[in-house]
Amino acid sequence: MHYLRVSIFSAIAVLILSSAFANDADNSLSGNITDKSSKAALPGATIYLPDLHVGASADAQGHYSIKNLPKGRYLVEVHYIGYAAFTQSTLISGDTKLDISLSETLIEKNEVVITGVNLATTLKETPTPVSIVRRDYLDANISTNIIDAIAKLPGVSQLTTGPAISKPFIRGLGYNRVVVVSNDVRQEGQQWGDEHGIEIDDYNVSKVEVLKGPASLVYGSDAIAGVVNIVPPGPVPEGHIKGNVAANYLSNNGQIAYHADIAGNHNGFNWSLYGTQKWAHDYQNKYDGYVYGSGFNNTNFGAAIGLNKSWGSSTLSFTSFNQHLGIVEGERNAAGQFLKPINNNGTEDEAVATNSDFKSYSLGLPRQQINHQKIVWDNNIYLNNGGRLGLTLGYQLNRRQEFEDVLAPDEAGLYLKLNTFNYALKYYLPEMKGWQTTVGVNGMQQHNDISSSKEFLIPGYDLFDAGVFAVTSKTFNKLTLSGGLRFDNRSMNVKGLSLDADGKPVTTGGDTKFTAFDKNFSNISGSVGISYAASDMVTLKLNAARGFRAPNISELAANGVHEGTIKYEYGNNDLKPEVSTQGDAGIDFSSEHVSFAASVFYNHITNFIFSRKLFNAAGSDSIPAVDNDEGYSAFKYQQTTANLYGGEFTVDIHPHPIDWLHFENTVSYVRGVIPNGTDSTKYLPNIPAGRWLSELKGRFKKVGGVMQNAYISVGMDMTFAQNDVFSAYQTETATPGYTLFNAGLGTDFVNKNNKVLFSLHLAANNITDVAYQNHLSRLKYGPENDVTGRFGVFNMGRNYSVKVTIPIDFK
To answer: d(Cα 69, Cα 72) in Å, to the nearest integer?
Structure first.
């Protein structure tokens, strides 16, 4: 069946390509990019057409030209450091001229959104709340992975299991409720598990868009919390070969990272290559010292080839993410020292972890290995009637292995193999009286294989997902209306498994580990929203959406130990799908010196799925061991009705006349409650605490003769106490608040022709070395330190960063 579907979609692609080459009219876009006040040319300004995936750079005279374009109306965006971004919908027909004047500003405006919409649009015209960061933001902030890098965005949090494993939470919801997209394909790994991160290279990113709420209809079911769209770099301008070399060092865990990328474009044929390596030993904080098992290393690489012509574009990309990381168990002796497993003359034993263990870049046991390969074929074909066809096919291979046996250190205990085939076919209808409409079908087929495992956490299964959708939008003078509908169906065939007395699979007899069953889930999603430009400075937004999520395999059928999260988990195959109904309201204000945005939401979820601790035989609140002799607490999934509400508020001030000074404050808050719950079951688990981020930053275009685009910043990260917890059965404990102070500075070094030679970024996080535990840290629930009486492991202490990037440009 799998190969039949592949063949069908491949045949569709061939038919589309063979029928579309008639659209070969010679259309182009050219003009000059200048300063609005002085009329001076702005060499190096970038112009990009997001829907066409093509762009150009202005030359020394400010002139640009993009050839071989399809006829039609497309959004054009222009960026230049220190200037407000320019966006305009432009009709391209024949030799089209567009001269662009940019205005200086230090407040970001006119960002372009591609996530969850049928065609690229401006942030101002999008009724759903979206946050956007670009590459320069990622370079200026310390992070150990891509989710860590965006966790300061309003309404975004991260659930962590050490520095290498971060999962996105949006407005209090995470796991399979957040869809992560990269290369136009939803990322599919083991995202149901706390101990499994996002397998995307944080250097192979041009920008990240975060859509909040269940308004996404184009990416399928599950996105009831929102979408994180990680956008890789697009093709470089015609006639150029460009690249970057970067190096980064973090002091706390000795993290060393190297990255290089190169890309070219000749007559519409474009290509790219990249590679990244990272090494980190154990991190430290002032309460735990070095934390044994928290080191990791990555080796990632990828390549792409593509063709952009007047008939459209076709791109084939490949990425490979490979990570080895330790597993923090938090076991200590009576003296409070971390313990490591050892082979003592053929017998399993323990010993005290030494300083050389902590600072070694080689990983001990237990550890895990993650490998994720993804190939994507993305096509956009422009038809003679003004419409467009999009076809995206993807194939992902995810491998996760856990190693914990000191007597056989190279033999995996848990070994999960997940293969996913993704497909999406979209038809962008010709514009009809201002309406822009897209209809499509997309989904995935998965096969999870556990036959190579010696230990078992989830069963093998086959899954097929299919959905049809329609989304549309129209701007009426100052008001933009958008919305759509979607129907999804998901079928699952879960494989049974029986084990003999030695824990090995058997076909007859034995004890049942997993029971075979079939499940089928279907539902309707929808959204409708308006964005109203009340004035040039004020935009009002309102959106209502309904989302759907089927239970994942862990929630339905888990029966085993989560090594990295120190718990034994039971699934529940009686679970029903979650249905989310959410309303959002927001206001954006932007002037020359002040901008602010406020957004509030209310989310009602029926059949909300969560896990809680089970009673033990004596009826007390926790279980020292269940079906194992290692002291893991037992959890089981259950359902309830849930209400989540809160919002985000951001204000950005550039006081006159010191416009170079930037003072930004962001407050995020979410509250999750269970209606009619008792005192100990009143609140939902895993709800992040309220947070206040404040940053004072100075930006300077020129500093002396060799430095440009410099900045210096100091910031405060205040996380409030989280006392509203699901405390029943000791499922969750309260977390005290904490305040971190951060700082950074950076600049571009240029030659006499103002060409950037290299960029330098220096940063410091947690300057006062506060010992803290984030409420969403899974390491918070580690064993007690008998010496201090503190439970679990604390987050990373003071950390300094040095990052250097060197651009490469051959014309």
So the answer is: 9
In terms of C-beta density within 10 A (0-12 exposed, 13-18 middle, 19 or more buried), how is residue 200 classed? buried
- Report CA Rg, the chain: 26
Q: What single-letter amino acid sits at 683?
A: Y
Choose among 633, 621, 626, 804: nearest CA to 730. Answer: 621
24 or 252: whose pLDDT is higher?
252
| Cβ-contact 438, 380 below 8 angstroms | no
Q: Is residue 577 within 8 Å of residue 551, measured between CB atoms?
A: yes
Chain-centre distance for alpha carbon 74: 27
Q: How far is CA 470 from CA 436, 441, 485, in A?
A: 11, 9, 6
Q: Taking the mean position of all CA atoms in its chain, how far away is CA 2?
A: 28
Report yes or no: 608 and 578 within 8 Å, Cβ to Cβ. yes
Could you report the per-residue pLDDT of 342-393, keeping only the tens digit for each? 999 999 999 999 999 999 999 999 999 999 999 999 999 989 888 999 999 9
> What is the rounded CA–CA span in Å between residue 745 and residue 591?
26
d(CA 503, CA 509) in angstroms, rounded, equals 12
Choose among 424, 589, 436, 547: nearest CA to 171: 547
Nearest C-alpha neighbor of 661 from the set 726, 607, 712? 712
Q: What confidence category does residue 564 fall into, taking pLDDT thresholds of 50, 70 and 90?
A: low
**Closest by CA position to 556, among listed 448, 470, 686:** 448
Other residues' Cβ atoms within 10 Å of the Cβ of residue 783: 14
Which amino acid makes up residue 391? L
Tell the residue number behind the tokens 């006349």, with chain if given.
657
C-alpha–C-alpha distance, residues 102 and 41, integer Å: 10
The secondary structure element, H or E, covering residue 140 is helix 135-140
Q: Count other C-beta atoms under 10 Å from residue 335's C-beta.
A: 9
Where is 135: in which H helix or E strand? helix 135-140
Give the distance, in angstroms, between the CA of residue 127 and the centroid of all CA atoms in the same chain: 21
Q: What is the pLDDT of residue 3?
A: 43
49, 70 Cβ separation under 8 angstroms: no
Two structure tokens written together for 207: 């920008």
**Terminal alpha carbon distance of the chain:** 48
Global pTM value: 0.93
Query: What does DSSP say about strands 86-92 and 756-765: parallel, antiparallel, or unpaired?
Result: unpaired
Quote the tokens at residue 369.
């290995």
Q: CB-based contacts of 347: which residues, under 8 Å, 6+ apart?
A: none
Query: Distance (Å, rounded) from C-alpha 296 to C-alpha 281?
Result: 7
Residues 6 or more apart whose CB falls under 8 angstroms from that of 510 comprise: 498, 499, 500
Long-range contacts of 665-668 (CB under 8 A, 24+ apart): 665/692, 665/693, 665/694, 665/695, 666/152, 666/154, 666/691, 666/692, 666/693, 666/694, 667/691, 667/692, 667/693, 668/154, 668/155, 668/156
Both tokens assigned to 431: 């514009």
Residue reference for tokens 């430009």 = 533
Residue type, 437: T
Amino acid letter, 55:
G
Tokens at 210, concatenated:
């975060």
The two tokens of residue 585 are 């309201």
Dihedral-angle region of residue 264 (phi above 0 means left; psi in -120 to 50 means alpha; beta otherwise): beta
560 with 569: CB under 8 angstroms? yes
Q: Tell me the two tokens of residue 300.
A: 């990632």
Query: Which of 252, 280, 276, 289 has the alpha carbon at shortest distance from 361?
Result: 280
Rounded to the nearest 5 degrees, what angle is found at the Cα of 207, between the Cα atoms of 202 and 212?
A: 100
**What tokens does 131 get?**
């946050």
Burial environment of residue 104 by CB neighbours within 10 A (0 to 12, 13 to 18, 19 or more): middle
| Tokens, residue 804 | 């250097």
Q: CB burial class (10 A; 0-12, 13-18, 19+) of residue 583?
A: middle
User: Strand ranges (DSSP E) for 197-311?
Assistant: 207-212, 226-231, 241-250, 255-266, 269-280, 284-285, 289-290, 296-309
Average pLDDT (52-79) is: 88
Yes or no: say if 267 and 244 are a contact pair by the CB < 8 Å rule: no
